[in-house]
From TrEMBL:
Record's function text: Negative regulator of class I heat shock genes (grpE-dnaK-dnaJ and groELS operons). Prevents heat-shock induction of these operons.
Lineage of the organism: Bacteria, Pseudomonadati, Pseudomonadota, Alphaproteobacteria, Rhodobacterales
MF term (GO), any: DNA binding
GO biological process: negative regulation of DNA-templated transcription
InterPro entries: GAF-like_dom_sf (IPR029016), HrcA (IPR002571), HrcA_C (IPR021153), WH-like_DNA-bd_sf (IPR036388), WH_DNA-bd_sf (IPR036390), WHTH_HrcA_DNA-bd (IPR005104), WHTH_transcript_rep_HrcA_IDD (IPR023120)
Keywords: Repressor, Stress response, Transcription, Transcription regulation
Protein name (Swiss-Prot/TrEMBL): Heat-inducible transcription repressor HrcA
Domain Winged helix-turn-helix transcription repressor HrcA DNA-binding: start-end pairs: 10-75
Domain of life from the UniProt record: Bacteria
Domain Heat-inducible transcription repressor HrcA C-terminal as annotated: residue spans: 114-336
Entry similarity comment: Belongs to the HrcA family.
NCBIfam families named in the record: hrcA
Amino acid sequence: MAANPHLEELNDRSREVFRRLVEAYLETGEPVGSRSLTRTLSEKVSAATIRNVMQDLEIMGLLNSPHVSAGRVPTELGLRLFVDGLLEISNLTDDDRRKIDATVTSNQADVSTLMDRIGSALSGITAGASLVLTPKHAETPIKHIEFVYLGPDRALVVLVFADGHVENRVFQPPLGQTASSMREAGNFINAIAEGKTLAELRDAIEVEIKARRQELDQLAQELIENGVALWADPGVGEERLIVRGRANLLAHGGDEANLERIMRLFDDLERKRDIAEFLTLAEEGDGVRIFIGSENQLFSLSGSSLVVSPYMNADRRIIGAVGVIGPTRLNYGRIVPIVDYTAQLVGKLISDRG
């Protein structure tokens, strides 16, 4: 079974069958059979042909048969593939916009009251549970940080603040990161996190990077002066120390030990650069995010989905989030623009109030 299938692996017929089936499931919540799909496909094919396609999609892990009936439903993996590659986002309707706008018509209400109104409006409009994280009034020190590997191009950072506040943000990690390297990054940051804000943590790691860089330069300089090694692309992110030949090291007593130390410094420098980039990405992560089923790290609710978007203040800093929680068969195409618009509205509201 494919662990992470891509749309490119599906031919046109399989892609249309998959898309139509998921759309029908999201609308009805019921298993979808081959006969009902024959009426919606642009290409006229037999029910038997569609059943063969559905079987292939099931082998790929995209569909599942909940009962002995011929009907299929999308798996969490299938929903993720649909959301990432086939979901058509509708425009926010005038009616939905009016209902959201109506929650902030009064300038007299305090922020807490307004956030309660927005949560109620989101719940009423979407028929789901609403999520509203109210803004932080000041930067709070980090108590604990954890990076969760979600795939080659997605990661979750869990930020636990000293005041007990918890935030979850999704970001795109640097290429080549693994679950192990993310755990290592979290362990390093937690060792120096006490009493520091996210920005202060990033500054502290930058200081560490500069110190390692200076130490590396001093050690490498002796090898270069002795003609044993040379810099390639010095001073940029991808610099390399090229050793001209191990035979030369034997003529310079302690050079081999220094070289091993330099290689360790290279590794350490690269790890700290990755960690610094993690923190930058975690601080900048934004946009509407969709967590499906077991991906829902924020609540660990089985069989639920979370559509969430952070909102920002006038300085473009994330200060809170709004979202909708519901079953995995949410009408994602409608709810995404609702959450996105609400987050932008709340961010503007908070910015206008200073």
